[in-house]
Specification:
The chain is of the alpha+beta class and 136 residues long. The chain has one domain. Helices cover 18% and strands 19% of the residues. It contains three helices and six strands, in the order H-H-E-E-E-E-H-E-E. The strands form three sheets. Strands 1-2 form a two-stranded antiparallel sheet. Strands 3-4 form a two-stranded antiparallel ribbon. The chain binds zinc ion. Zinc ion (ZN) is lined by residues 37, 39-40, 42, 75-76, 78-79.
C-alpha cells in the first residue's frame, strides 16, 4: 500500500521507479477490470476512488514487465501482496486462466479462502483487447 499511497500523492522520491506503479497503467488496468479484483471480485471505493485495489504487473517490472493493460491484473490488497511476493501465478488451461497458489502459502483464516483459489478461474475484462494474453 505504501507505493500506492505515494503514487496517489505524486511522491516518488526515495523509491526505485520500479516500486511505484505508473498511474496511467494502474488506471487502465483498474478500469479494464471494472475496478474489481480479478481473483475475488473485491470492489470498494471512497468518493469514487478505488480503495484497497491496485494494478499488478503479471511479470515484475524489474524483470521487464511492460506497462500494458494486457500485462496487468487488478488485484485487492491481499491478492496483490501474495502476487507480488510470488505466492500466486497464472496457468493457462483449456478453461482459461487459473490462479496457482504456492504450497508455501499458509492460510490461517478460514474465511480468507486463499487456499481454494485454484478452483477459481481468473475474472477477465469484458473488452477482449484488454484481456491477459499468454506469453507474458
Ligand atoms: Zn482479491
Amino acid at each position: 500500500m505504501h507505493g500506492a499511497i505515494l503514487s496517489a500523492v505524486d511522491f516518488v522520491g526515495g523509491l526505485p521507479s520500479s516500486a511505484v506503479p505508473c498511474r496511467q497503467f494502474e488506471n487502465a488496468v483498474l478500469d479494464a477490470y471494472d475496478r474489481r479484483c480479478a481473483v475475488c471480485d473485491f470492489s470498494l471505493d471512497l468518493a469514487g476512488m478505488p480503495l484497497g485495489l491496485g494494478a499488478a504487473h503479471i511479470k515484475w517490472p524489474i524483470a521487464g514487465g511492460p506497462d500494458q493493460v494486457q500485462k496487468g491484473l487488478a488485484l485487492c490488497g491481499i491478492h496483490q501482496a501474495t502476487w507480488e511476493r510470488g505466492a500466486n501465478s497464472l496457468a493457462l488451461g483449456s478453461a482459461g486462466f487459473r490462479i496457482l497458489v504456492s504450497s508455501a502459502l499458509g492460510d490461517r483464516e478460514p474465511d480468507l479462502d486463499l487456499l481454494r483459489l485454484p478452483a477459481r478461474s481468473l475474472r477477465l475484462p469484458a473488452d477482449f483487447t484488454e484481456r491477459v494474453s499468454a506469453g507474458w
